[in-house]
Amino acid sequence: MDSRPQIVVLAKRPRPGHVKTRLTPPYTPEEAAELAAEALRDTLDAVAATPAAARVLVTDDPGPGAAPDGFEVIAQRGDGLDERLAWAFEDVYARRRLPVLLVGMDTPQITGTLLTRAATALQEHDAVFGPAADGGFWLLGLRRPDPGLLLGVPMSRPDTGAEQLRRLRGRSVATMPLLTDVDDAAAARAVAERAPHTRFAATLARLGAGAAR
């Protein structure tokens, strides 16, 4: 049996006014959506470069062209982010009964090397946790997903990561490096500086850093 995890990207379809709204201002809704689209493409590239039992995009708009070849596409379900995360794990795990490694679309600086490290850790631990600089998390891996590990965790707060880790007490947890989510213009600049090779960084440079707007 394939012991590699399934890798999931949880994402919104990049539409103006619906994604990266904290980038507006200084960027227009259209520019924010463009940055989100490039961040998602960078993320999918990193996942494509990572050995996996399956690669899955869980999206709010699973229409044609949602993901490149090699990805399965399924619809998100649930209301709050905790529900969307919980059911993404549940739905993907149910397909193959294999561990699930999940990332979002807010960290275009991730690489196949970093995800491979997380995937390897998930073969040796019950969970893998990637903390984010804003107090949340950019990656979560579970060998045996359980909705109860996520449902009710308060999201988008400075203590989100700490609360999620509390849910994992009693399990073996491997911790990944701290990363910065692209939440606002300052974070976008910081991410682009750390990952100048990405599509996201190139698009940010073309649009301008936003500081003078």
Key structural traits:
213 residues, alpha/beta, Spore Coat Polysaccharide Biosynthesis Protein SpsA, Chain A, 35% helix, Nucleotide-diphossugar_trans, Glycosyltransferase A (GT-A) superfamily protein (DUF2064 family), Trfase_1_rSAM/seldom-assoc
Q: What's this model, at a glance?
A:
It comes from Nonomuraea polychroma. By secondary structure, the protein is an alpha/beta fold.
Note down, in words, how this protein is organized:
There is one protein chain. By secondary structure, the protein is an alpha/beta fold. It has one domain: Spore Coat Polysaccharide Biosynthesis Protein SpsA, Chain A (Alpha-Beta Complex), CATH 3.90.550.10. The protein has a seven-stranded mixed β-sheet, sandwiched between helices. Helix 1 runs antiparallel to helix 6. The protein is globular.
Number of helices: 6
**Total count of domains:** 1
Uncertain spans, ≥5 residues at pLDDT below 50? none
Order of strands across the widest beta sheet?
3-2-1-4-6-5-7
Fourth CATH level, the homologous superfamily: Spore Coat Polysaccharide Biosynthesis Protein SpsA, Chain A
CATH architecture name: Alpha-Beta Complex
Number of strands: 7
Mean pLDDT: 95
Q: How is the biggest beta sheet arranged?
A: 7 strands, mixed
End-to-end gap: 54 Å
Strand content: 15-25%
Roughly how many Å is the radius of gyration?
A: 16 Å
The helix/strand class is alpha/beta
* Highest-level CATH class: Alpha Beta
CATH topology: the name is: Spore Coat Polysaccharide Biosynthesis Protein SpsA, Chain A
Shape: globular
Range of helix content: 25-40%
SSE run: EHEEHEHEEHEHH
Protein name: Glycosyltransferase A (GT-A) superfamily protein (DUF2064 family)
Organism: Nonomuraea polychroma
